[in-house]
Amino acid sequence: MDILLIDDDTALTQMLCEYLAGEGFSADAAHTLGEGRVMALSGKYAAIVLDVMLPGGSGIDLLRVIRAESDIPVIMLTAKSNDTERVVGLELGADDYVGKPYFPPELVARLRAVLRRPRHTAVPARGLERAKHQLGALTLDQARRIVAWDGAAIDLTVTEFNLLEALLEAQERISTKDELSLRLLGRRRETYDRSIDVHVSNLRQKLDQACAGRVRITTSRGVGWRLELFR
Fold this sequence. Notes:
This protein is of the alpha/beta class.
């Protein structure tokens, strides 16, 4: 899989490109916001690793541009001490973040987690029903990666789609923060980690807008969430 690294640290990106090659990936690097924008929207890459600090502008601004045109998985690189950057990035549609300085094996694990989604291949007839979920007029087609309310498509990021799928599969059972973190982000949730909370908030806003409040993500305080239909 082709990975795009957008970071102004040329020595670091060269090292990481070599490391990713050893892990079975092919990686290209961009070192400025302008260069990164052109490459990110080229359609060539399976995922993007994006630094917040870039010559010519902010990685947050570039993320906003990417999300306006693509649902490609994006992992943000942020200063470990800057919680604000992490939350803003997640709210704008980043799928995950890694604090700098980081451990390359951790970044690879995060990449594999965000790339862990069904391929767009034909689905055998016997498996077709298992690939579809419905709650009222809300439908999720796993094979085609489409979510719709009453036939109108809802635009979701990769992580939001996977989150909705997990909530639909759980039916009336509460999905805990820990299990969602493992499933969606590929890691155990730390006490201070708000990643799942932000993804849930983003998905809740999109569902509220698309479904006019008919389908809601309800909270079980301190435990997790479940999806409910209101008639």
